[in-house]
Amino acid sequence: MEDKKLGLSLKYKLLMLLTFIPLASLSVYLFIATKEFEKDKLPYVLDSTAAMAKSLAQQVRVEIDTFLDKSSVLVRGFDLAERKFNQLATDSFNQAERFDALVIFQHGTNGQYEQIGSLVKENDTAREFSKNKSLFSSTWSRTAMSGLAIQEYKGSEVHLVISFLIGSPQSADHTIVVGLYRSSDIYKAFTSSPLYGSSLINKKGEINLGSNKNFGPEFFKPIVSSALPEGTHEIGDEKPQIVGYSSVGVGQMYVVSIVDKNEALKAVQNLIIKSLIFFVGLIAVTVIISLLASIKLTSTLRDLFEATKLVAKGQFDVKIIRTSNDEVGGLADGFNFMAKEMERLLKETKAKARMEGELETVKLVQETLFPPSKTKIGNFSVVGHFEPASECGGDWWNYSMVGEKLYLWIGDATGHGAPAAMVTSAAKAAATIIENIPGIQPGTAMGILNKAIAETTKGRILMTFFIASIDLKTGEMIYANASHEPPYMIRGVDKKVSKKNLEPLLDAGGARLGDSKDTVYKEGKITLNKGDAILMYTDGIVDLKNLEGKAWGERGFIKSICESASSSSVLDNRLTELKSRISDYRQATELPDDITLVMCQYDQEAA
Predict the structure, then answer these.
(1) 197 beta partners
(2) Which residue would you say has higher pLDDT here, 525 or 137?
(3) Each residue's pLDDT tens digit, 234-267
(4) Cβ neighbours of residue 467 under 8 Å, at least 6 residues apart?
(5) Which residues contact 354 (CB under 8 A, 6 or more apart)?
(6) Residue 396's beta-bridge partner residues?
(7) Nearest-angstrom CA–CA distance, 135 and 149
(8) Which of 521, 485, 527 is nearest to 506 (CA)?
(9) Most Cβ neighbours (<10 Å): which of 78, 107, 410, 473?
(10) C-beta contacts of 8-17 below 8 A and 24+ residues apart
(11) Do residues 413 and 428 touch, judged by C-beta distance below 8 A?
(12) Where do the structural domains in the chain lie, given as residue ranges?
């Protein structure tokens, strides 16, 4: 680089730059900003009020979705004929910390609601709630009106009452599910703002939750009658209120945030005064710092100038001594850091390449844990499919002969990736030992497998599992379940399959593997007839999402099971059709979790 003669000293340039230009710029900016701020202060208040309502509406929607997802799982475990919850639903409820009670009511032909089932925690609040007839009476009408309702529970800072409708309100036997749900975060969100008063209202303008108790349905009429999902209104003449509102998106509910217009504008005017003081102080400080910095900065900048010439020549072992604590001093540190980063990045590149190679090795090793994707053993056909969400997966499935019985295995470790893959290796190793124990039953096998996983992971990674043994001569199947997704028995082969042909295997349930070494697992029993098939799967299937981010869900999965089972009586064709429907729904989106499908079919009459 050729040295050229320098012109005006940098010290004087900095003095001009740091003193006169900021002084003039800040003066002009302060004048313009003050005028514009005064002009736009009301739109600012309107926007902040609308943003507050929208933010709270999103929080409420997330909380409602969380409640509906969990409660829907519990309701699916309710036997309407026997009017009671199965053991799996009861266990799930007891483990759900945020649920204190869940009560199911059915609308009768006499026009009244009858309680047909409930799950209640052992605490005074839950027991009192389950007997609160007046509360349920008001909840029924609100829920039937909007399909979903939410309200405070006796002014509690902890509990909400959330209810939803199953079926059409015009149907004589529709059902309403009412839950007592812990949600202190939502309560705080509606009561913690010192400026805004926020509430949750229904389509009649009635307040279900919040602090605006002085406002009635007539006040909220412009909001509930609006065709827009969100916006702002100025309501009231003598004491005008600025109201921002946003639709929750379910249950025809709105979140409203209210601020007194006069108070809001007073706060903005105070902000303008403080801004004026701040700008005056900033200008004064700028003048003082400019005088000092113009002298001090030049020495460090000179060193930086020389250092850039060395870097331009490819010399990266440059070290600059820092002489100031401002941006120029930070720039000096940046030069020093740059040289170290070059060396670090080279090392990280090598380490990353090595890790990728190791992950590829783990993937290759895990592939050896799985059996061939399809087989025929005696009169029983088995096909399977596994697809990991990352390089390695936490799902595992297998089939094997133990004595004269065909054993089927499927499991899902917590999460995915290398740690989960290691747990599947431990499961495979334990299963290999179990296969050599004559006459072993699925419940006993599950207990041995549980001890192996518990010893391996020390409770840090758990695993759901399902084991079944099938007598090839009689078609009798005995099974045990460790909190795994219940498989479906598909009855019939030479006919169109509908939901009524699907029979979930719910008779045996137990804790996940690794949760406790002493868990004893119950067994269920069922007999297969000619053409009967069994579908086992992991929960990654129902969690699939499309390009819009919508989860497939159990309803979409069951529909695809019926359609694929109806498409052919050949087991391999059924699995191919089901995989095709999964692919069509995903549309190449990233998998949120590993997916595994195992389909089995009995090809002759039981003896």
Answers:
(1) 258
(2) 525
(3) 887 778 888 889 998 888 889 998 887 777 767 5
(4) 407, 408, 409, 442, 445, 446, 449, 479, 480
(5) none
(6) 411
(7) 12
(8) 485
(9) 410
(10) 9/298, 10/297, 10/298, 10/301, 11/294, 11/295, 11/298, 12/294, 14/290, 14/293, 14/294, 14/297, 14/298, 15/290, 15/291, 15/294
(11) no
(12) 371-602
Half-sphere exposure of 110 (CA within 13 A, CB side): 3
CA–CA dist 336, 353 (Å, integer) = 27
Mean pLDDT of the chain, nearest integer: 82
Two structure tokens written together for 598: 């195992």
Rounded-to-integer distance, Cα 87 and Cα 194, Å: 46
Dihedral pair phi/psi, residue 435, rounded to 5°: -60, -20
DSSP 8-state symbol, 499: G
Band (1; pLDDT cuts 50, 70, 90): very low
Please give the backbone phi and psi of residue 602, each rounded to the nearest 5 degrees, phi first: -90, 125
- 527: which residues sit within 8 A by CB, 6+ positions away? 474, 475, 476, 477, 606
Cβ–Cβ under 8 Å, residues 198 and 220:
no
Portion of the chain with pLDDT greater than 90, in percent: 23
264 closest CA partner among 230, 244, 241: 241
Count the helix, strand and coil residues of the chain and give each as a percent rounded to the nearest 5: 45, 25, 30
DSSP-assigned states of every residue in 263-290: HHHHHHHHHHHHHHHHHHHHHHHHHHHH
117-135 residues labelled b (16+ CB within 10 A) or e (exposed): bbbbbeeebbeebbebeeb
Alpha helices by DSSP H, 458-594: 553-567, 571-586
CA 458, distance to chain mean position in Å, is: 26
Sheet containing 533-537, strands listed edge to edge, beginning at the edge strand earlier in sequence:
374-377, 380-387, 595-602, 533-537, 488-490, 502-504
* Per-residue pLDDT reduced to its tens digit, 353-382: 455 555 565 665 666 788 998 999 988 999
The 3-class secondary structure across 103-133, one letter per residue, is EEEEECCCCCEEEEEEEECCCHHHHHHHCCH
The total number of residues shown for the chain amounts to 607
The answer to whether the beta carbons of residues 57 and 243 sit under 8 Å apart is no
Q: Which two tokens stand for residue 262?
A: 């006069």
Q: Tell me the CB-side half-sphere exposure of residue 223, using CA atoms within 13 A.
A: 37
Distance CA(574)–CA(577), nearest Å, equals 5
* The predicted structure's pLDDT at residue 447: 94
- Return the CATH fold of 371-602: Phosphatase 2c; domain 1 (3.60.40)
Determine the Cα–Cα distance for residues 33 and 31; give it in Å rounded to an integer. 6
Q: Quick check: 602 and 528 in contact, CB under 8 A?
A: yes
The span from the CA of 461 to the CA of 454, in Å, is: 9
